[in-house]
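Incident log, entry 3
Record: Ribonuclease H (292 residues)
Problem: checksum mismatch between cached and fresh output.
Input:
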Amino acid sequence: MLWELNVAPKHSHFLWRALNEAIPVKGNLFKKGVKCDPLCPRCFNHVETIHHAFLDCVWAKQLWFSSTLTINLNHCHYTNLHDWVLHMFKQTDKASREIITATLYGIWYARNLLVFQGKNLPPHEVSTTILAQLQEFQCHCIKKNIVNQNHSTGNSSNNKCWSPPPKGTVKINVDAHLGDGHWFSGLILRRWDGNAIGATTRLHAGSDEIIQGEAYAINDALDLVEKLCLPEVIIESDSQIFVNLVKKTRVRKNWGRIVERCISFLEANPSSSISWVNRVRNRVAHELAKWA
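Fresh output:
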């Protein structure tokens, strides 16, 4: 999962080293006999281990919560980075894994600025820089691919922006965002000519399971389809994990009923679909959920 991510090579290589306890946090240096203060250079309350530096330090927790993933680590029960990353990678889609990887590198980069240059950057500023750098790298990769694929047609542009549905069909893009202990879903309805015909947001009880929030958003879309009596719809979500689960017959989770509802909906409406789309093409729904 790590090596297939579209992130800067130094980010994926760094995470590989961190997962193998191969980065020089002060606690590791102290154990190896290096004369240094083993305490965390930010809080000075705990030994700087890999787990503390990336997950347990107050500054790191603030950064994770201020990221676009709004991860709350106050009740994290994982005691090492490896298990936490493995859990998050299994629970999230590729785009979220890329943000997690870039964020871990950004935390280490900001830590080194503090240790070696005395620059103590606020968490929200670092979080904004991390996302901007990730998007810049991915944008560069997209442009490079376009240059290398001169034989491709206009279909290449569909990978970067929203594409309209077939005539007579309505497309509903959905996304979810965790904030203030609640899940917020954003939905945008558009016609085949590109015109928006409606937008809405919904509120749900919070949970630290990201896929549950995505399930809520798709369930909201189904509610809207029934309320408006839409005959043919395409529901798009950037949660690849949930969309893949719709292909299964049973999911033993508290949100498994939503998967069953999706399956029943598709069986009753063969002209409709529930599809995965990347975050860039789902941007309006994403921004709606964040705004809510």
